[in-house]
Fold this protein.
Amino acid sequence: MSNTKLVLVYHGFERFWHWTQSFLIIFLAITGFEIHSSYSIFGFEAAVNLHNKAAWGLIILVIFAIFWHITTGEWKQYLPTTKNLKAQVEFYLTGIFRNAPHPTKKTVISKLNPLQRLVYLGLKILVIPVMVLSGLAYMFYRYPQAGAIKSANMQDLEVIALLHTFGAFVLVAFVIVHLYLITTGHTITSNLNAMVTGWEELESDENEPKIDHEPKN
Amino acid sequence: MQNFKPILTFLFAVIAPLLIITLALRETITEHELLNQLREEYSREHKLGVDHSKHAILQQDFTNPHEITAACLSCHTERGQEVLGNAHWNWEREAYIPGRGVTYLGKKNLINNFCTGIASNEGTCNRCHTGYGWQDETFDFTNEFNIDCLICHDNTNTYEKEKGAAGYPVMGPDGPDFRKIVGNVGRPSRYNCGYCHFHSAGGNNVKHGDLEMALLTADRNVDVHMGVDGFDMSCVECHPAENHQMLGRYYGVSSSNTQRATCEQCHTAVPHTNSKLNEHTVKVDCRTCHIPTYAKVNPTKTYWDWSTATKRKDGKPYEVLDSTGNVMYASIKGDFHWEKNAVPEYYWFNGTADHHLISDKIDMNKLPLKINTLFGEYHDKDSKIVPMKVHRGKQPYDTENLTIIQPKLWDKEENKGALWIDLDWERALEEGMEYVGMPYSGKHGFVETEMYLPVSHMVSTSDMALNCKDCHTRNESRLANLTDFYMPGRDQNITLDTIGKWLILLSLLGVLAHGAARTFISRKNKTA
């Protein structure tokens, strides 16, 4: 590819966060649907214990990730935009089959295309909070029933459980589509490589501020 | 080496923190201090501080059991008054029942699902009363010399009350050695309590299912507390009787949730080292998981159909036994079902109960008739899931007055209208209702009835307790009938699950179709 250069797109913590989160979410899905009696792998008791431990792991990770996003200003990556949104949809529906160029240029200060911005923002402000909050309620709902915390007295687990289950279905569907979309970069593996090593060949942009993005090796 | 760098980075950056998090959150296994204390406490032997055989007043040949009581009371001066106030003596208790107000209910006046009630049958039923001579309504409940001390305090296991003698023992040359008995009185043993409680409703293990003679000799697989190879605990360890007021009361006759003997009194409300199990104790009674089955040694009666009684063979009453020797049919009692290693049924129970009184009208739209109603539901914070033996059967009722009929079952003589002697329903029903002073229309039928008996004994060793999957499973959950709450692993919303499955399926199909189209087109372009 002409006029490109290797750029550090994903920083160390970002990659650690991304991969840990991906493992945790997949593991939570496997154990979660076992708790839902969809199949039997670990056994109910072990599934519950593993699910709860993984959940705490994810919560700790999410707290660090929020801190990282705020302190680095990376949260701006998820600001939604309508610019190029239609073009991006059209690319996935038709352009990709014609080998048309990506309508959104990937840069370090704008890593996400408008569709990704919308989906990831949705995950961050809707799906993940709903899952974390319903999950915590799921874990602790028995205690208020014992009368200790009156203001948080939940009468029934059903709404919590159904919300949590629905969120799990949405996340599984997201993971499937997300895994497939990895292959839609410049090359089949370029997105995956970038997420593993952090480095990706991007078209050089004259307007982009010159920062230290040269590979060290 | 250079190639391994990303892998090593990945291992240290991703896997290592995960392991640390997992290890840090792992529950620590702590030694159970309390259980060790209990073990120590109950392995100590109880020694009586007195040798009754040395008392001069007990060195006589008693000819009348009241004399024995008088001898006891001459030293234990206040114990008589204590007993006159307790439930073993009065067979009734004061209780407040919503909708009924303050009641005085107990074995004395309640109906049950077995022999219906004691009224008109006192002579035989009261063989288990802690007194002498409760033959009919004229019995003096205020006379402490009517108390039978020996039935609870004989430690020779030879004291016996005579059948059909209203609580009197056999005296004289045919009777037991009373001098030996009074010289060996002491704390009530399992034998003493079991003398009545193992044989209630007319035979070993008939009524309760979790209280029977096998508990005198059984090992800890039958009952972890009473097992002779374990703590070998007696009934009074958990059911102490400070000033003759017993701790623990039977749900079939008690309406208030007070004075219960509970597992928590020794084991606390958070007995497990595993916090997940402790959380369960908010909603699940200890007995639910720790008594997976009852009637472990001998079967218990689960069904009693009175409607088939009075049949004769060759003009005589008869019995039909099953292969293991249990009575399946008896002319005097009707049809029975028995169950061994029975699986309890599970219900919400908050400790309070109502009872169907003999004066209550039967609601024919709400059958089977509940002889006792145990209150409770998921949303009641005092309710827990409790294992029950549900005893079902058919009781005689007045088809005009819509009341349960108390039959006269027993008498010393023929032609006095006792069903068990004369095998005549009409006469037995008339006599019984006349005795209790209730009207009887002369028309009877049989109504289906249920009685709820929480199972509290035959506690299994912890390795035999229920595990998660016994309840948290889609099919054949032990709690399948408790549908007033959502339980993980058992419950699902079919609509939501269908939507979810389609969401996943369509995502898969979508990416597969998209990917296939991309591959197909790029191949075509390459070859073109």
Remarks:
- The radius of gyration of chain A is 20 Å.
- The longest helix of chain A spans residues 44-72.
- Chain A touches chain B through 49 residues (CB under 8 Å).
- The beta strands of chain A are 4-8, 199-203.
